[in-house]
């Protein structure tokens, strides 16, 4: 049987959502609620949601096999699905993780700058110097307006004492 | 005290000099963020929430109302000039509005959108002011079992009316429900789906999820897909003014749009998609210029824009009176209230009456500020559309991450945000709607609470769930919502076969 374009990756996606349902089911089964008597056990909802999710995923799985493939956002049904641009995607994703790793170790200014710069370069790598300058101005303005005027605490990190 | 007097008190507390200053700032920021392509009102409000964290509740509310209207207005500007609607409610506006802009009539399209939104917003807020208290009075009598039914109805309508595929909507809802399960169960203290992580015990915060699923998800999706596609900004000639003929053709659609939008906001009908579409269809049928539809008919902008705004105000009725959000934007507003320590619901008018009236007065003020500020400033907003995409996404993502971290100054929220960003990417790639996930996350825990409450009152008798007349009516409606589309599709298939 020949599957329509994009069906394989969607089957993987729906399969992993089914696995999420299994995970919820397993976590609920192994948990031990407190002994006192409750009218509705805290296990009822997780079980119901897990079964609902797995059931829906199973139905969608069959439908995809029969040709009901998803239309990516922004496309019309039947449009050819072009291959994903994994390079740009990875740089953007790496920039997000950089923020997570740097926010408490190096402070907001460094973390936000790295993220900003990374994403700008991912989308358009022709003018890195301009991105760096605009990025630092943007991050500084945000940092100062949030910490000084809005009293929202952001970690100063390694630049502590300088600003 | 009558609603009118309470409202006047609301105006008195909202109309101080510093509050007006916050209102102006909110209008400015709301439009600024809303006008950025791809950002709808829900995301704009979520992104700007950190700004209101440290302001006093009354000031925060007026700023918030201004952000809300500003973001809605900004969204229609993008639809008209760029043809990139930031949310489903602006799709119809883009249809005719962008065609008008192509003919050099962008000014008239923007003006009819702004004035129509103002009129619809004002009328709808007035209806809200005078109906919400009595609905809240009725709502106090709504029992736990009725709440269960109402929430199931909201889940079903939002999941099956949004997006192209009912089953994908329900899967999105279930993923949201799973996210809502994470953390210690309120009644028994049982830790669910925490896998030994201490931060997860307190549950998943809604703000990081909302900003991440919209902003991070969109950035990742665009990165994977449309790198080379540019935007085509249409020039705006002249001022944002309407001719006498434009006004003559617009005022009826404004009023009809309001009449369609408001009631469909009150009942859980799945957000602003249905009312704007209906309004467009009505105008297309009633117009004296049918030849212009599809080529830039002003009625096709005036009606849906009014419907969109009236719908948003209508959605505040179930939100304030029942604590039940029926759209992504309403869900974000609910979260905003909770950060100001306000819990919407039937008792809100009793416990926080003054604050509610301040909010309603703020909605009037925000709406008016917007009209005064935005029509003259429209050229400035148009300039914003020229921000290059790399900077646009970098800025939005930085802001989204800032908001996730600043909420509790915790990296756990940032981890959640990144994970949800990836989920948002996958949802876009595989055609799953986002709103059901958000509603599942927010309402799931609430549904469990009311379900347990109902069964405790009935001592475990499940019959209680369908005992009241209201719940019977709701389940009947639910049945129609589920079976309706199935029958419709079946008929369509039969017709095709023939």
UniProtKB/TrEMBL annotation, chain B:
Domain DUF112: 21-439
Keyword Transmembrane applies: yes
Record's keyword annotation contains Oxidoreductase: no
Classification via Pfam families: TctA
Entry's transmembrane regions: 12-36, 42-69, 108-132, 144-162, 169-186, 206-223, 319-342, 354-378, 390-407, 473-490
Record key words, sorted: Membrane, Transmembrane, Transmembrane helix
UniProt xrefs under PANTHER family: TRICARBOXYLIC TRANSPORT PROTEIN
Protein name stated in the entry: Unannotated protein
Organism: freshwater metagenome
Taxonomy of the source species: unclassified sequences, metagenomes, ecological metagenomes
């Amino acid at each position: 049987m020949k599957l329509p374009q994009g069906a394989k990756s969607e089957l993987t996606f729906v399969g992993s959502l089914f696995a999420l349902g299994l995970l919820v089911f397993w976590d609920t089964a192994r948990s031990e609620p407190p002994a006192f008597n409750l009218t509705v056990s805290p296990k009822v909802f997780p079980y119901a949601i897990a079964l609902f999710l797995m059931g829906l995923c199973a139905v969608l799985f069959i439908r995809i096999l029969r040709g009901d493939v998803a239309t990516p956002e922004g496309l019309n049904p039947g449009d050819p699905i072009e291959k994903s641009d994994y390079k740009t995607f990875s740089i953007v994703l790496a920039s997000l993780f950089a923020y997570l790793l740097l926010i408490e170790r190096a402070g907001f200014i460094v973390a936000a700058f790295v993220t900003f710069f990374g994403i700008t370069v991912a989308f358009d790598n022709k003018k890195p110097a301009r991105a760096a300058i605009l990025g630092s101005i943007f991050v500084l303005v945000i940092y100062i307006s949030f910490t000084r005027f809005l009293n929202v605490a952001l970690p100063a990190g390694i630049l502590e004492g300088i600003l | 005290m009558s609603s009118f007097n309470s409202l006047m008190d609301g105006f008195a507390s909202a109309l101080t000099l510093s509050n007006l200053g916050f209102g102006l700032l909110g209008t400015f920021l709301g439009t600024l963020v809303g006008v950025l392509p791809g950002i709808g009102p829900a995301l704009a409000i979520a992104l700007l929430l950190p700004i209101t964290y440290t302001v006093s509740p009354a000031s925060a509310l007026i700023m918030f109302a201004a952000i809300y209207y500003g973001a809605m207005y900004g969204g229609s500007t993008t639809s008209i000039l760029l043809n990139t609607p930031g949310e489903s409610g602006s799709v119809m506006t883009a249809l005719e509005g962008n065609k008008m802009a192509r003919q050099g009539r962008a000014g008239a399209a923007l003006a009819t959108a702004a004035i129509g939104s103002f009129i619809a917003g004002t009328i709808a807020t007035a209806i809200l002011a005078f109906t919400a208290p009595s609905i809240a009075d009725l709502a106090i009598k709504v029992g736990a079992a009725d709440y269960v039914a109402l929430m199931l109805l909201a889940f079903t309508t939002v999941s099956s009316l949004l997006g192209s595929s009912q089953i994908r909507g329900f899967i999105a809802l279930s993923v949201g429900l799973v996210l809502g399960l994470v953390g210690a169960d309120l009644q028994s203290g049982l830790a669910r789906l925490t896998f030994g992580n201490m931060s997860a015990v307190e549950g998943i915060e809604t703000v990081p999820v909302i900003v991440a699923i919209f902003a991070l998800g969109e950035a990742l999706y665009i990165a994977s897909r449309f790198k080379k596609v540019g935007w085509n900004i249409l020039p705006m000639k002249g001022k944002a003014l309407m001719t006498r003929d434009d006004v003559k053709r617009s005022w009826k659609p404004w009023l009809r749009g309001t009449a369609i939008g408001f009631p469909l906001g009150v009942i859980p009908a799945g957000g602003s998609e249905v009312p704007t579409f209906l309004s467009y269809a009505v105008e297309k049928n009633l117009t004296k210029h049918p030849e212009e539809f599809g080529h830039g008919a002003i009625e096709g902008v005036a009606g849906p824009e009014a419907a969109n705004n009236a719908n948003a105000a209508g959605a505040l009725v179930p939100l304030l009176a029942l604590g039940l959000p029926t759209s992504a934007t309403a869900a974000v507003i609910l979260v905003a209230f909770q950060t100001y320590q306000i819990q919407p619901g039937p008792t809100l008018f009793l416990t926080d009456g003054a604050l509610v009236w301040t909010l309603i007065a703020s909605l009037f003020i925000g709406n008016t500020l917007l009209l005064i500020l935005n029509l003259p400033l429209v050229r400035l907003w148009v300039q914003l559309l020229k921000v290059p995409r790399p900077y646009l996404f970098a800025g939005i993502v930085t802001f989204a991450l800032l908001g996730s971290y600043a909420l509790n100054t915790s990296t756990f929220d940032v981890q959640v945000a990144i994970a949800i960003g990836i989920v948002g990417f996958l949802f876009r790639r595989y055609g799953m709607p986002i709103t059901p996930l958000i509603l599942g996350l927010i309402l799931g825990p609430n549904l469990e609470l009311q379900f347990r409450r109902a069964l405790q009152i009935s001592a475990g008798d499940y019959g209680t769930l369908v005992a009241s007349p209201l719940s019977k009516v709701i389940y009947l409606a639910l049945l129609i919502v589920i079976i309706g589309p199935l029958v419709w599709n079946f008929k369509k298939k039969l017709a095709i076969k023939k």
